Amino acid sequence: MDNFLPIAYFEKNFVPFKDATISIATHALHYGTGAFGGLRGIPDPANPNQILLFRLDRHADRLSKSARLLNFDLPAEKIFATITEFVKKNQPKTSFYIRPFVYTSGLGIAPRLHNIEKEFFVYGIELGDYLSPDGVSCRISSWCRQEDRSLPLRGKISGAYITSSLAKTEAVESGFDEAILLNSSGKVSEASGMNIFIVRNGTIITPGFEQDILEGITRDSILTIARDMGIPVIERPVDKSELFIADEVFLSGTAAKITPVKRIEMYDLKPDRPITDRLRAQVTAITENRDPKYKDWVFTVPL
Q1: 90-101: per-residue pLDDT in tens?
Q2: Which pLDDT does position 133 carry in this prediction?
């Protein structure tokens, strides 16, 4: 457990990470009745006495809305304040990832969201690159992305990630780095835990919300940045065959940041990725608080 930050927030207290444990009878463990968030933090390159958190307000708001889907009233302000205090108590010295989690903490055996206790915890782990920044290979998964009519896909519901887990393992065990899931209509949806973008003729194209994607915060950031840079952006359905002929393909997410795709199935993509590279450089500058235009996206936590 050397890579985990030493202090966790658990059952309304800050405790040593090793002491933050749950019962084997915990409801969420059996039924996937939890929801999580994830955000990155880095020591400020310009000031070693503070930590930079990227879009903390958006992450807190999304988790609060995910909690609502679990019949749990957890204000975004509470999440925001808890994460801020969590960072202060851990005093991280390197790049790290924060995992806040809401869940049904009761010990009942009936699948339900009413009349059962809910809880909220936060822990963290040191984290560099989640995927290779040089590019990844992808396969089209045999598993289908769920539909919003069967799962509330606007939230990061923990039970939904069985599909991501199946797809990721299928991809890795068949010689690829990552999986791309199609939705029930056969259109491109997302990767195992990332949104997906393609570039064709200088235009960025990405599946819209109606394609059963997660409302990614990094995705939203990329769309805003691209428009500000004057790069055309279209949100629309994407066909599988478009992946193979795209000029560029990249994945986005809090852990993955912006990760280029170098091969999909048997098709090698172009090694030159001018738009992906521009976006990566800009996102890095923003997260390091070097671009005053996006200063409101970066939250500083003094140590």
Answers
A1: 999 999 999 999
A2: 85
pLDDT tens digits for range 129-179: 888 889 999 999 999 999 999 999 999 999 999 999 999 999 999 999 999
Q: 0.90 cut: is pTM over it? A: yes
Domain boundaries, the chain: 7-126, 136-287
Does the domain spanning 7-126 belong to CATH 3.40.190.10?
no
119 bridge partner residues: 103
Cross-strand partners of 190: 181
The first and second tokens of residue 170, run together, are 């299928």
Which of 158, 160, 156, 130 is CA-nearest to residue 143? 160
Q: Which of 237, 82, 59, 253 is nearest to 155 (CA)?
A: 59
What is the Cα Rg of the chain in Å? 19
Buried b (16+ CB within 10 A) or exposed e, 169-199: ebbeeeebbbbbbbbeeebbbbbbbbbbbbb
Cα 115 from chain centroid (whole Å): 30
How many angstroms separate the CA atoms of 75 and 43, rounded?
27
Return the CATH number of the domain spanning residue range 136-287.
Answer: 3.20.10.10
- Cα–Cα–Cα angle for 45, 51, 52, rounded to 5 degrees: 80
- What letter represents residue 1's amino acid? M
Name every residue whose Cβ is closer than 8 Å to that of residue 264 and which is 6 or more positions away in sequence. Answer: 137, 138, 139, 140, 180, 243, 244, 249
Cβ-proximal residues to 245 (8 Å cutoff; 6+ apart), any chain: 200
Angstrom distance (rounded) from CA 267 to CA 168: 19
Q: Is the confidence at residue 1, as pLDDT, over 60?
A: no
